[in-house]
Design goal:
34% of the residues lie in helices and 26% in strands. The model has no long low-confidence stretch (mean pLDDT 93).
Length: 447
């Protein structure tokens, strides 16, 4: 019996898929099809899949060409499967020509002709709603945002608002957008959703006005510097059936999502300590060193690092205290200690002091180590006393990483989903409350 194997996502199964499966079946007597899992697709940065894995498996079986379906769930699985199932021929579409030649060591590799004029990407583009998005602010993060939207279906960035006329025009010219610099309401009238990437102190007002205009909002970190303001905005969005999401990019990336799942499932036992750190060296003049623009290590770095702690340990802490080194009115270094009834946590932040930038989650059975820069997570390791049990995990962190938060935001709008388990509103509010406590200089020790 000649055994053939092929792989694919098979999203929105179409004539091209069916033709490829038919051709693969004709190569032998028994056809195995590997269908990618949902987590594997997201881990590879494939964010636009419409059908879940169960739907895709059933669609593949319904073609009648398949003898067996397996799930592809990790990099390197193709070699394992070829040996496990005693495969004679590996078949794949011709658009992958040459990419899988390395498999010739294990079996014959055949590239099959593709059906022209149809693809899952085309079908998704035809069937999916497209939401017009406007950007508030034209700084560094906004320049990274626009290219990231190109890999997420359903997004059309059409305009930018910036009170600085020159900045708005330069940004708009670069990306082919319409620029606004005076009338924010006019800008809002031409979009369905807003990405707020303006200076820290303006986040609250721009977000509030956008929500009041009936627009969905994705707001950069720090979402607000006040827990009261954060709660007010979330309450308004909920009452008016609008999506409001904090753009804490790490919270949405595949690797960090898997870390939280592993921790919650108890693989390292009961968590007793979490340590996170982040720093960058900044030279004046810079916004990060300007007290009038809410500069400082805490306002700059705390949102991501507090997010990790709140996600892993919750928001019901019993005590928090701060230690800071202040220069020219801003903290160039801050350490935050957070006590829980059964755990401790700390974050170490710097814009004038350098630290490693890793994340360590300690438990009663083992610990998870995420190397620097942990907030760009693409690799982590679960470690135990018995090192033979250690396990390494690798994930894609594609582009600037903003695509994961954009995909979540657009998915929430398209599916009328107002809550996001990856970063819940109560967690976002808790982060803002701790930052507000620091800025009020409650329990702050000056070094």
């Amino acid at each position: 019996m000649k055994r053939v194997i092929t792989y694919g996502t098979y999203d929105l199964l179409h004539e091209g898929h069916i033709n490829l499966l038919r051709r693969a079946k004709e190569l032998g007597d028994y056809l195995i099809v590997g269908v990618t899992s949902d987590s594997f697709d997201k881990g590879r940065g494939k964010l636009n899949v419409c059908n879940n894995v169960l739907e895709r498996v059933e669609a593949v079986k319904a073609t009648g060409y398949v003898d067996e379906v397996i799930i592809e769930d990790y990099l390197g699985q193709k070699i394992d499967d070829i040996q496990k199932y005693d495969i004679d021929i590996f078949a794949i579409g011709s658009d992958w020509e040459g990419h899988f030649d390395y498999l010739n060591e294990y079996c014959k590799v055949v590239y099959l002709p593709r059906t022209q004029g149809i693809s899952s990407t085309m079908l998704r583009a035809e069937s999916q709603d497209v939401f017009k998005v406007g950007i508030v602010g034209s700084g560094r993060i906004a320049y990274r945002f626009v290219p990231e939207t190109k890999v997420v279906n359903g997004v059309d960035v059409n305009s930018v608002f910036d009170p600085n006329n020159l900045n708005a025009d330069v940004f708009a010219c670069k990306f082919g957008l319409k620029a606004y610099n005076e009338n924010y309401q006019q800008f809002l009238s031409g979009v369905d959703a807003v990405y707020v990437a303006s200076p820290h102190l303006s986040h609250y007002q721009y977000t509030k006005e956008a929500l009041e205009a009936g627009k969905h909002v994705l707001c950069e970190i720090p979402f607000t510097l006040s827990g009261t303001q954060a709660k007010e905005l979330y309450d308004y969005a909920e009452a008016h059936n609008l999506v409001l999401l904090e753009a804490s990019k790490t919270a949405y990336c595949p690797a960090f999502c898997h870390i939280t799942t592993l921790v919650k499932s108890g693989v390292i036992g009961e968590v007793v300590d979490v340590k996170a750190s982040e720093s960058k060296m900044v030279e004046s003049p810079a916004r990060e060193l300007d007290s009038k623009q809410a500069g400082g290590a805490m306002n700059e770095h705390a949102p991501l690092n507090l997010m990790a702690i709140i996600k892993l340990l919750g928001k019901e802490y019993s005590k928090v205290d701060f230690y800071s080194k202040i220069e020219n009115g801003v903290d160039v270094y801050t350490k935050v200690n957070i006590c829980y009834p059964h755990a401790t946590a700390s974050i170490t932040l710097g814009i004038g002091v350098k630290t490693e930038g890793n994340l360590i989650i300690s438990g009663t059975k083992g610990y998870i180590y995420v190397p620097a820069p942990w907030w760009l997570t693409d690799f982590f390791e679960v470690r135990y006393e018995d090192q033979t049990k250690n396990k390494k995990y690798f994930y894609s962190y594609d582009g600037e990483g903003l695509r994961y938060e954009i995909q979540e935001f657009i998915s929430m709008i398209a599916n009328n989903r107002r809550s996001c388990y990856k970063l819940r509103r109560r967690e976002s509010i808790a982060i803002a409350e701790i930052i507000e406590k620091y800025n009020k200089k409650e329990d702050v020790t000056i070094l």
